[in-house]
Every structure is written in structure tokens, then in C-alpha cells.
Amino acid sequence: MLPEEDLSRLEEDKYYLFQLVGSSVFTESKKRVGVVSDVLFIKDNDLLVIERGGKEILIPFTAAICVSVNLEKREIVIRPPEGLLDLNEI
Max Cα separation, the chain? Predict the structure, then answer.
């Protein structure tokens, strides 16, 4: 456990887990999707676990879908392909 200021600086578009968990997720049209509760680190395609109304949605954490991450506001803006938000609710 280190103070945040002692952590190594990451490359652009790389984040620490604690920076993403708790972030609000919105679509580009400002529709609130939910809050990041976890990140699943899997080969070639990390997934954001989004808590929404007692269910979880898995969103690929890729540049094509996650178009912006604002760490100061703790917000992530996504451009989900049609049906993604309904397809994988668990």
C-alpha cells in the first residue's frame, strides 16, 4: 500500500485499478449506464464490470468502446455497439 503520489507514472491510456473502480459510466448521449465495480483482466481484452440496478454489465475496456476516461471527474464515456448493454446483463 503506497500513497498515490508514490506510484509509478503510467503510459497514456493505462490506469490503476483503483482509478477506475467507482467511476460513473455514461454513453456518448449522456445516458447513465452505471458504476464500475471491478475490472476483469483477461488476455487481450480487459472488461469493466458495471453495476446497474442490481445487475452487472461487462464492457470491453477498449479504445473503440471506451472513448474517454476522465480520472478527475471519475467518469468513463462509452460508445457501445448496438445491443451490448442488453446482451450481457448478469
Answer: 41
Domain extent at residue 82: 15-87
Spatial distance between the Cα atoms of 22 and 37, rounded to a whole number of angstroms: 6
Looking at the domain assignment, is residue 48 inside a domain? yes
* Cα separation values, 28 from 9, 75, 90, Å: 28, 12, 23
pLDDT at 57: 92
What is the pTM (predicted TM-score) of this model? 0.83
Q: How far apart are CA 20 and CA 57, in angstroms?
A: 15
Q: How far apart are CA 66 and CA 86, in angstroms?
A: 17
Q: Provide the residue type at 46 as one letter.
A: D
Number of folded domains that form the chain:
1
Q: Examine residue 3 and state whether it is found in any structural domain, yes or no.
A: no
